[in-house]
Structure formats: structure tokens, C-alpha cells
Structure prediction request, 182 residues.
Amino acid sequence: MPAACGTASALPELFAANTALFTVGKLMIGYWKLWVDLLNLGHEAQRVIAMRLARIAAGGPAADAECRRIISEKFAAVAAARAAAAAALAAGKGVDAAAMLALAPVQKAVRSNHRRLTRIKRFDEVKLAVRRAVRGAGHVIGRVLRFRARTRRLLVARTASAKAETACSGERPFDPAGAGNT
Prediction:
């Protein structure tokens, strides 16, 4: 217990105790941030893996390019992470700082892949939607043209049969204006 509780001489002791707790709390927050960052990285990496596997399963030259890109990006990210961790340790920053700095290049690579693959996916979805719309519009236009052609053929056939009937009966054709129908 401090020498004189409630006196001014007890304040430095309390301040020193709170400073030690604050330092421990600050360290814990740093470790928790590292764990949360790793958790987010794992989640985002799983999404990137799923999109890459879908692209590879589609086949073609894009799948071959994606396979080559996977390997080259892994080597580049590991080399950058190793260099960042080594520089942090050489500067005496500690293991926790080295881990945070080593995580940064890997996070950057995963985020850039996620952005690239979602952009491709969105472009493919838009392209597919446009194809469906054009195909649907072409289908509708074709139906309209077929309907017009069918009605034109029916009208021509009816007119020809009406002319043939009036020619056989000897009657004059009906005039809708009423001129000459007496």
C-alpha cells in the first residue's frame, strides 16, 4: 500500500503502476491486431483460392495463365515477406514487429488478386447479361418479324381468295367508300 493514500506523494506510485498496465495492454492489442489480420488474410485467401479454382476449371488460355501467375506471385510474396522480416529483426524491432511487417506484402498480394479476380468476374457477368439481353431481343425481334410475315401471307391469301370468289360470281367487288355500290 502506498505510504500516504490520498496524498500527493502517492501519485507517482499510482502513475507508475498504470503506465505498466498501459504498456502491457498496448502489447496485447498489438498481438490481437496481428491475430485479427491473420484471420482476415486467411478468409480473403480462401475467397481468392475459390475464384482461381473456378477460373482454372473453366480451362483455356486464361487457366494456363492463372496457373503460371499463382507460382510466380507466391515466390515474389514470400521473398518480400522474408526481406521485410529480416530488416525488422536486423533493426532490433522485435519478433512482433517483424511478423507484422512480414504479413504486409502477403496481404497486398492477396488483396490485389482479389480485386483482379472480382473485376474479371464482374466483367464476365456483365458480358453474359448483355449476351442474354441481345439474344432475348433478337428472339423478340424474330418473333415480331415472323408474325408480320405470317399476317402478310394470310392477308394476301384472303385477298386472293376474295378476288377469285367475286370473279367467279360475276359480282362487283365491295367498295368500302360506298361509291358505285348501287
About this structure: The chain has a mean pLDDT of 77. Helices lie at 11-58, 61-90, 95-169. Residues 31-129 form one domain. DSSP finds three helices and no strands in the chain.
